[in-house]
Amino acid sequence: MANRISVRWKMWHGAGQAGQSVQWFALGFIFLFYNQVLGLSGTLTGIGVSIAVVFDAVSDPIVGSWSDAFRSRWGRRHPFLFASILPMGLFFVALFSPPSGLDELTLFLWFTVFNILSKTALTIFGVPYLALGAEVSGDYVERTGIASYRSIIGEGSSLLVAAIGWNFFFVSTKSNPNPQLTEEPYFLFALASALVMIILMLASSWRTMDVIPKLPNLPPTGFSFKKVYTDLFEALHGLSFRSLFLGNLVCTIYWGTSGAMALHLKTFFWELDSFGIQWWHYAGVMGGICGVPFTPWFNRVLDKKWTVILGVVVCVAAATLPVALALIGLMPDDKNLLVPLLVFFAFLGTFGIRPVGVTIASMMGDMADEHELRHGTRQEGVYFAAFNFAEKCTGSLGPLFAGIAIDIVGLTPNSVPGEVTTEVLSNFGMVYIVIAIAVLFAIWVFWPYDLDKTRHSEIVQQLANRKKVNLTDNRTINQVTRTENDD
């Protein structure tokens, strides 16, 4: 189809990112909620998250391969989008609404089961949704633009949920300066988050159906569970995909661990009230919104590989440097100075990392073009699913490591900010810093990626030439057939 995609379509498509963005933002509370508020141990909370992520990872390649092979009058992707939205919202609300009086084992089971269900429903939406954004255009730069709109609107939906949460539900008072440590606000917060996701995802799915007749119409490849993993390993044969795939594995372990510890860090290590935490969240979201528009420029000047590498370095440095400075006594104790500094680093971190996510989504489409040249089939769903599969498998290790670390350093359930010992906080900070060392290995793994703009232009030209030859051959065959019929 034509490379130029309307701004209107990009914006409606971008609205679907609210599902992942809002769920990821809201689930930032889940570790603190179950561990500190409901009293589930850090280790069991980490195990519950890890089990759910592994289940989610297994579903990724199945959904990706299934949507690649699926055919209907609503296209390959949209039936999955519509089928997943309402179940995802219901499971998400249930995750934040366990019945009162559960013992630890039953609470663990509730947490794990509804975590699995909400993540699986999001996968059924998310993998076809991302594949749709990749297959709608074959242009190297256009794909970055589509992913940019998706990221900006996703960040905007996170900002909306953050503003709702901190201004209506998690509001500090003199009698309750840390409302994130009480149970009451969580149900309404989850309900509001679910409504934002459902409305935007339904609107996105409905308003992007106009491209269905224009999408690549390749022969069906069939679906089987064996084929799911055959496709997965076939994707790994490409050097570029393998480099990006393995490098992201390492980064995901880091992000999974640091993300699970983030609200503990803000509440106990930095001892911020809800005002400071909400501005940290706002800065993180705004950093992403400001960083994403620079992505096409980064891709043109640095190319996509270096956009990824430098963005990861900036993100990790911004996350860990304040903690390191605090451990050696170089961060201010005065909250009037501390909060603006933390806000700045939060802004800088997401300013660096959000272009990475946009660029990787764009790279997936490039690698799908390379796959079509080699194998004659388009399998965006498999590429996104394979990437998500590995990301989630390794991401399951992050929350598990975080939960074990929280227990080992002695940050027990129902801890009170300001009353945790200096030794516990120092050990917590050291763990937070040490995990960042893994990213150095990720950069080394990224290095062999070689699908730059020049190589991609060659691939697109070769695909165009092949289609011309096939079209000419088909016309010749049709002409011969008509001549024979006339005779």
Beta-strand share of residues: under 5%
- Would you tell me the overall average pLDDT? 84
Number of helices: 18
Helix content: over 70%
Q: How many beta strands in the DSSP annotation?
A: 0
Characterization of the model:
77% of the residues lie in helices and 0% in strands. The protein has helices spanning 7-15, 18-26, 30-37, 42-69, 78-95, 104-135, 140-169, 185-207, 225-235, 239-269, 274-291, 295-327, 335-375, 380-395, 397-409, 422-434, 438-446, 453-486. The longest helix has 41 residues, at 335-375. The relative contact order is 0.15. The mean pLDDT is 84.
Topology (elements, then pairings):
Blueprint: H1 7-15, H2 18-26, H3 30-37, H4 42-69, H5 78-95, H6 104-135, H7 140-169, H8 185-207, H9 225-235, H10 239-269, H11 274-291, H12 295-327, H13 335-375, H14 380-395, H15 397-409, H16 422-434, H17 438-446, H18 453-486
Helix pairs in contact: 1-7, 1-8, 2-7, 2-8, 4-6, 4-9, 4-14, 4-15, 5-6, 5-8, 6-13, 6-14, 7-8, 7-11, 7-12, 7-13, 9-14, 10-14, 10-15, 10-16, 10-17, 11-13, 12-13, 12-16, 13-18
